[in-house]
Amino acid sequence: MKKRLNFEKYTFIIPVSIWMIIFMAVPIIYIVFISFLQRGVNGGIDFVFSFSNYKRIMSPLYFKVFSNSLSIAFITMVFTLIFGYPFAYFVSKIPKKFRTLAIILIIVPFWTNSLIRTYAWMNLMSTEGVINSILVKFNIINEPLKMLYTYGAVLLGMIYTLFPFMVLPIYNSIEKLESCYIDAAKDLGAGKLKTFFTIIFPLTMPGVLAGCILVFIPSLGLFYISDLMGGSKVMLIGNLIRNQFLVSRDWPFGAAISIFMIVVTLILTTISIKLVGKKTDMGVF
């Protein structure tokens, strides 16, 4: 009987393991491998072992790109959290028959290609777009505002695109929150604000952390938003990696940047998980 159970267990584990090895482990190992090689004269790869690609990452030029990308990712994460948490809390409190509709409205943008939605924002924000046309028509402004191809436009595009990634994990945590904790806080005389900051927010911290990770990490690689809405004036890590692979054809350096950012992201994620875990324990108990 034990042998049969072990056989059934391995029949599920082996296919998943093979899938993970082929489509995740092998590509990452390949990227790590070529990151220690050198670019060929004609854009190929010279199989010469070197640490030069990782040394190039430390140059001030690329450090500015990294810091700019991290700042945009952090600001995007903060704003999606500021707007996403109240939205998720409101959705969790409406009657159940309307919650499904609210969740569908959050998910609807995923049904449309993100590039199409980005082009829609470009049409709205251009100097001859809908927003400027309305403002000029009603004499609110004398000349069109420059909203597109700016740092703010890139942030807006990031926040709009990644907003659902923040809302859904937080909503899931709030919905699973047991009401007995809130009732106990009220019985002990805690007000609404104190109940929120000492009970609700700490207990929903796993959803907040999941949302922050789901927003922060993709915002480092969404190069098409900075290309389209920033007019290539805002260089992010995703743009830099894309340029190395497709424009400069410097695959080893592009691979080195990718590995460097994977390591940085893992470190930041590990630190945030540990810090949030400690704060959650202190906040609840």
UniProtKB/TrEMBL annotation:
<feature type="transmembrane region" description="Helical">
    <location>
        <begin position="196"/>
        <end position="225"/>
    </location>
</feature>
<dbReference type="GO" id="GO:0055085">
    <property type="term" value="P:transmembrane transport"/>
</dbReference>
<keyword id="KW-1133">Transmembrane helix</keyword>
<keyword id="KW-0472">Membrane</keyword>
<keyword id="KW-0813">Transport</keyword>
<feature type="domain" description="ABC transmembrane type-1">
    <location>
        <begin position="66"/>
        <end position="272"/>
    </location>
</feature>
<feature type="transmembrane region" description="Helical">
    <location>
        <begin position="253"/>
        <end position="276"/>
    </location>
</feature>
<protein>
    <submittedName>
        <fullName>Spermidine Putrescine ABC transporter permease component PotB (TC 3.A.1.11.1)</fullName>
    </submittedName>
</protein>
<dbReference type="InterPro" id="IPR035906">
    <property type="entry name" value="MetI-like_sf"/>
</dbReference>
<dbReference type="Pfam" id="PF00528">
    <property type="entry name" value="BPD_transp_1"/>
</dbReference>
<feature type="transmembrane region" description="Helical">
    <location>
        <begin position="98"/>
        <end position="116"/>
    </location>
</feature>
<feature type="transmembrane region" description="Helical">
    <location>
        <begin position="148"/>
        <end position="171"/>
    </location>
</feature>
<dbReference type="InterPro" id="IPR000515">
    <property type="entry name" value="MetI-like"/>
</dbReference>
<comment type="similarity">
    <text>Belongs to the binding-protein-dependent transport system permease family. CysTW subfamily.</text>
</comment>
<keyword id="KW-0812">Transmembrane</keyword>
<keyword id="KW-1003">Cell membrane</keyword>
<dbReference type="GO" id="GO:0005886">
    <property type="term" value="C:plasma membrane"/>
</dbReference>
<feature type="transmembrane region" description="Helical">
    <location>
        <begin position="12"/>
        <end position="37"/>
    </location>
</feature>
<feature type="transmembrane region" description="Helical">
    <location>
        <begin position="70"/>
        <end position="91"/>
    </location>
</feature>
